[in-house]
Amino acid sequence: MDGRDAATDLELLRAHVAGDRDAFAALFHRHRDRLWAVALRTLGDREEAADALQDALLSAHRAAARFRGDSAVTTWLHRIVVNACLDRIRRRQAHPTVPLPDGNRTDGSGTGGVEPAAPVQDHDTALVVRAALAALPVEQRAALVLVDVQGYPVAEVARILGVAEGTVKSRCARGRARLAVLLGHLRPAPPRPGPVEPDVPDVTTGNPRPAEGVGSGSVLIRQDANQEET
User: Fold this and answer.
1) Containing H/E element for 103?
2) Is residue 200's pLDDT more than 80?
3) What are phi and psi of 120, to 5 degrees?
4) pLDDT of 17-36, one tens digit each?
């Protein structure tokens, strides 16, 4: 086993700063798939994601000596990748149409990561979801990609984005609300409710008047909208 395989992320980063020419490559290969997935989902385009990831890794390579250890190395790497993606998004704000990957390309872009691909039967839906995600404001998109797509805890995402946990929750909530509108047509139609018999208690012949509480207002019928949370 290579000694680098047993080293921690911090040890690899320190070895890189000390002059080990292979330590940073080992660190990148350890986390490349998740970093690549974050870049791809944030940008929605394979070539843009590859360029952003390359920019981020160059920045991390050069800034390693300034890493203070205030957060985990993975948090630091993700922050640099997300910032590189957001910089690219802001630079192309005048061009709202975002090219979408087909999920099956293997063009040798050099990222080393595996592009998440949808099953064939879900391919069209996956593209629609990606397009909807790309239509979100950049801050909401970044938060949703990290929390809902990549599954990071809110606290970790707050550290990655450099904002409060409440801000992450708010961005996710607003982003999910926008996605619910954009993707509402993908939800199955709710079943038609059948006739509802009022739940009226029996009244015996011995009662001089209807039992207390019986009447049109004693039964509340609640409609279920069957809206799934997005």
Assistant:
1) none
2) no
3) -55, -45
4) 999 999 999 999 999 999 99
Please enumerate in sequence order all residues whose Cβ is within 8 A of that of 125, keeping only pairs 6 or more positions apart, or say none.
118, 186
Burial 166-202 (b: 16+ CB within 10 A, else e): ebbeebbebbbebbeebbeeeeeeeeeeeeeeeeeee
Q: For the chain, what is the largest distance between any 2 Cα atoms, rounded to a whole number of angstroms?
A: 97
| CB contact set of 168 (below 8 Å; sequence gap of 6+) | 143, 147, 154, 157, 158, 161
Task: Please report the pLDDT score of residue 165 as a whole number.
Answer: 96
Rounded-to-integer distance, Cα 214 and Cα 208, Å: 14
pLDDT tens per residue, range 116-148: 444 444 566 777 878 888 889 999 999 999 999
Cα separation, 44 vs 145, whole angstroms? 11
By the 10 Å C-beta count (0-12 exposed, 13-18 middle, 19+ buried), 95 is classed as exposed
